[in-house]
Amino acid sequence: MVLKIHGHAIAPLVRLVAEVCREKEVPYELVNVEVYKGEHKTPAFKEFQPFGQVPYIDDDGFILYESRAICRYIAKKYASQGTPDLVPRDPKAEAIFEQAVSIETSNFYPFVLGITAEKIIKKHRGLEPNEARLSDLVNNLNAKLDVYEVILGKQAYLAGGSITLADLFHLPYGTIVFEELGYDMLENRPNVARWWKDITARPSWLAVKTKA
After folding, report:
1. Which of 34, 60, 112, 207 has the lowest CB atom count within 10 Å?
2. Would you say the pTM of this structure is higher than 0.85?
3. In terms of DSSP H, where are the helices of 54-108?
4. In the chain, count of helices (H) and strands (E)?
């Protein structure tokens, strides 16, 4: 059976999972979830994803939720095909990879998600952004990207010389902040700009950039 991704086609983390499927040459079927109608909060959906969030996958009866866990699963199950070593297998290389994932989780994701919430999610709910909080999020993200600039001045990708999931995890919300919302945080950081241009030009991302 083909792997099924349950989620909405334009949801950022649904597109992330679809991107990794394409990196690993894994066919998938998108099972649409009407998030704007609250389908993800229904008992039927929460039977498989108890937090009521998208996506979750059904891989021939194996149910898994949380996008980063799903991406790791796909990368490891299909390690022999598609883009190699999205999760490195050497213990030291894997440790560096996990370090890079922690960088994204702690020093990037909270800030881009927060900016997205203030600028987009609140607008959809008819609310005004909290400008003080937004300013704080932007300042924090700029400070974190200064450290990215140092790291990426020494190596091509966050975990070393080859692309991994740690890099790809930046794509959905980074695209929203840097491209859709137009926050100019790359021009004065040439190493970050080079890295961002590289990962956003991947055919697997371009194929799902607007919808999975």
Report:
1. 60
2. yes
3. 67-77, 91-107
4. 11, 4
Confirm if 55 and 4 have CB atoms less than 8 A apart.
no
DSSP states along 113-142: HHHHIIIIIHHHTT----HHHHHHHHHHHH
In this structure, the number of other CB atoms found within 10 A of the CB of residue 202 comes to 18
Each of the 212 residues of the chain gets a pLDDT tens digit; together they read: 899 999 999 999 999 999 999 999 999 999 999 999 999 999 999 999 999 999 999 999 999 999 999 999 999 999 999 999 999 999 999 999 999 999 999 999 999 999 999 999 999 899 999 999 999 999 999 999 999 999 999 999 999 999 999 999 999 999 999 999 999 999 999 999 999 999 999 999 999 999 99
Which residues, 6+ apart, have CB-to-CB distance to 168 below 8 Å? 16, 19, 20, 23, 71, 86, 199, 205
Contact 125, 106 (CB under 8 A): no
